[in-house]
Structures are given as structure tokens and as C-alpha cells.
Amino acid sequence: MGYLVGQVQIVSKRVFPCSMVGDDTSSENRDVVDKNKEITLKRLVSSRTVTKEDTIRAYQVVPRELFVPEKLRTDAYVDTPLPIGEGQTISAIHMCLIYLELLDLKEGLKVLEVGGGSGYHAALVAEVVSPTGKPLSGHVFTIERIPALVEFAKTNLERAGYSDRVTVLEGDGTLGHPVEAPFDRIMVAAAAPDIPPSLIDQLKPEGIMLIPVGRQQFWQELTVVTKDTEGNAKQRRKMSVAFVPLIGKEGWSP
Length: 254
Ligand code: SAM
Prior knowledge:
Blueprint: E1 3-5, E2 8-10, H1 27-46, H2 53-61, E3 82-85, E4 88-90, H3 93-102, E5 110-114, H4 120-129, E6 139-144, H5 147-160, E7 166-170, E8 183-188, H6 197-201, E9 203-214, E10 220-227, E11 233-241
The structure holds S-adenosylmethionine.
């Protein structure tokens, strides 16, 4: 059964075996995870941070607890960045969902993510561009520069059931992924000094790119880049954000 928050139907929560919460298999832990998931969603919907049905559905379907280190699984739905190793973080839930809303995602789109991290954000996007239970349509390519995180993301995506809709690549994402370009959408999950020209080139006409631009440490401006039908790019600043640095040839030096 579902219930209503604002105008949006909240479908019943997905049930996982207790063992999927981590080492501690108590049903209280499962309850904490489910309760936090629900509370966070209600807060994001009532504050109108999240308004789109597709975004809400993706949040409900993708199990974030499978994308954080085992010892943090009970905290998976606390709306804050969490450490994933190698000095990197999985972004806060509200930030992932704001990206989904601003990207104006639709089924069938080809999306490039730069900064794969845990794979969670890529799975959320995949759930919108190629929803679970329907024939495969859209696809997400995610590039991560740290080999240990490439493996982490692959394992998480496989376990959560997204490896058919998300391809994880190792490399410098500032250069994009020319073999699969152009992309309908590009999302960059790390902070750049400037917008990498390679990524602008690899965005389709009528495409949308989101990228934090600014200082290497706090703060940056989340920048929305759009291309018109002729391929002319325009950019506008959306909000202040704090991301880890984008390190690469067209980003910050290592
Ligand atoms: N989207 C991720 C998730 O869902 O867990 C979180 C991304 S984390 C905030 C930023 C990631 O960008 C880090 O894992 C970092 O290693 C990666 N990164 C930084 N520079 C990069 C580059 N040039 N190419 C690819 N990945 C990069």
C-alpha cells in the first residue's frame, strides 16, 4: 500500500533480508534503516527539495545501504556525506536528488557521470533512465579515477542489480568518454576550477550538464550548462555547494 506526501504517491518500502543491512542482522537495525529512509524522504518532499515522482521512486527503489561501507549501513539514510574510503565520500542524499531533478531525466537517455565513488548516484540516475522491471533503455557511464573505488562501485552496483544499466570505467573523467559521446546528460560529482572543454564538447545539443565550479575546497557554485539545438552552450549558477576536488588533466592537478 502507498500513502501520500504532498501530491506524490509514496509506494510501499522495499523489503531486504536483514543480512543485507550488514554484520548486525537484527530486525531493529532493519527498522532503523527503513525509518530513516522514510523520515529523510518526508523532509525532502515537504521542503520541496524534491518534487518529481521519478526522483522519489528512484530514491525508494535504490538501496543506499548497499553503497556504503558495511559498518555505516545503519546510518545509510542520514542525509549527510559518508566516507567510502580513499579520502572520498558518497554525496548527501539531498544533493544526489537535487542533481536528479535538475538534470530533467527521462527514460532512454545516455548519461555520463564523472566521479563514480560508491556507484549510488549512478544507480539513482539509472533507475530513472532505465527503470527496474522494464526493457533496458537508457544507460549510465560512470568514470572514477581511484582504482579501489572503481571496484567498490562495481561490486555495489552488481549487488544492487544495476550492472546491466551502469558501466563503471576507470580513468580521468575530466576528459569524458569520447567513445560513447555525445551524451544527453553529464553530471560531475567533484569540484572543478573551470568547466572542462572536453565535457562541453561531449554534451549533445539540447543536453544538460551539472558541475560544481569554484575553489578546490569549500565552496563552489553548482553550474548548469545547457546547449541549444545549434550546439551553443550557456551556463547559469544554481546554488552554493561543497564537493571534493575534480583531479585530472582538465581539473585540479594531483
Ligand atoms: N557520485 C559518487 C557516489 O554516488 O558515491 C560520489 C562522488 S565523490 C563526491 C567524488 C568522486 O570523484 C571521488 O570518488 C573522486 O575519486 C572522484 N574523482 C575526482 N576527480 C576525478 C576525475 N578526474 N575522474 C574521475 N573521478 C574523479
